[in-house]
Amino acid sequence: MDAPDKTTAAFLVRLVDYGESDRIVTLFTRDYGKISALARGARKSRRRFGGALEPFCLLEVTLASHARGLWRLGETTLVAAYPGLASSLARLGAAARILELAREVVPEHEPDPAMFELLEQALPALSRADEPHVAATAAAASLRVLALAGFELRFTDCSVCGAPVPKGARVRFDPWRGGVVCTPCGGGPIGLAAAAVRGLLALLALPLSRVSEAGVDAPRVAQIEEAIDAFVRHHLGKPLRSSRFRAS
Amino acid sequence: MADPIRELSDLLARLPGVGRRTALRLAFHLLGAPEEYARELGQAIARIRDRVRPCSVCRNLTEQDPCAVCGNPRRDRSIICVVAGVPDLWAIEETGSYRGLYHVLHGLLAPLDGVGPEDLHLDALRARVQADGTAEVIVATRPSVEGEATAFVVRDILKDLPVRVSRIASGVPHGGELEYADRVTLGFALDGRRNMP
Q1: B165 touching A, CB under 8 A?
Q2: Who among A17, A55, A79 is closest to B112 (CB)?
Q3: Which fold has domain A84-247?
Q4: Do A241 and B17 touch (CB under 8 A)?
Q5: ipTM score for this prediction
Q6: Facing A244 at nearest CB: one of B16, B116, B145
Q7: Which class is B75-167 in CATH?
Q8: Which of A7-16, A58-67, B4-13 bottoms out in mean pLDDT, i.e. has the lowest?
Q9: Which of A65, A137, A221, B33 has the fewest CB atoms nearer than 10 Å to its CB?
């Protein structure tokens, strides 16, 4: 007997055409983690899923088990859209970086409610962020995504010897080591001003919706983003496709 | 299986929306069809690659340059409708209620796929509007995050020019049932309500 259908909240993170009329969607779901599902007829008719197969939206999806281990996507409903994302390339690009990063670092079929909750907070926070605070919000969200995926970057002590970073000192970040590395241990290719480290810690101490209160200025945020990008490039072996939107 | 049939079937199976079984069925259908039809089909396929090019004005796909729309002196040259693709242009043409010109982007912003503004021929749109003194640009991209974002980018690249930029309406489809509309669409429909004349 077929297992009963399951309903869960989800973010769509990839859409690929499949066969004559179908699509395979990659969803990050609240209850089943990152999964792939077959959306039958999604290419032939937009009525089939009511135009709900869109990234950057919170969806409610119904899933049925499939013979080959692939889920079959059933009824899909748009639960929340974040209109602020569409009205700014900076906000949309930031949201894309967060979704793509989560898509790349999260393994399949492992429920991760904390990661889902983070995405649920990050998209509305980015949607409402004033332009000057978009990059800081995205950086804070990226660091949280990495931490939840098991890649907590170290900024307060040396990633090699564990020695605490002297307060007020400029530090060197090494993407290969996943954190700052003190001079005796060889340092790293990316310099971070003491203010950038302080800013980064302030960003992480605040909820994503209040990141603007950290008051981290744009040059410091840019340093933090450079360190995150370098780590992601090293870890994934490629840059995020959406990373080009930062420069736009 | 005879090789020419397999060859045709394999080629047809590479078309979007055509699987192997359909491709084989089509190949046998062509084998049984009047010879003239098969010959015309082959020639039409060859012609489409040899002759169809983007219109140098609007980037519509066309055999003649400029395309039939841009070359038609009876079209209203003060309005440009921006669409994501040629099928959208055809859909608007079929309404019979639009008499202006077009600009085809051949895509939408898609940051998750790495498609950015520089991939959408927006410089050409700006140059047209500037050179022709266009009065209105209608952005007719679909109502999704990517379609809306594209519309905002179009607005931004034209913002210093004396042109009105408008957006097609979105909401509940004609003949649709409110009870079956998703809450986001219904919300947009309510937000975009207008006074009745």
Answers
A1: no
A2: A55
A3: de novo design (two linked rop proteins) (1.20.1440)
A4: no
A5: 0.78
A6: B116
A7: alpha beta
A8: A58-67
A9: B33
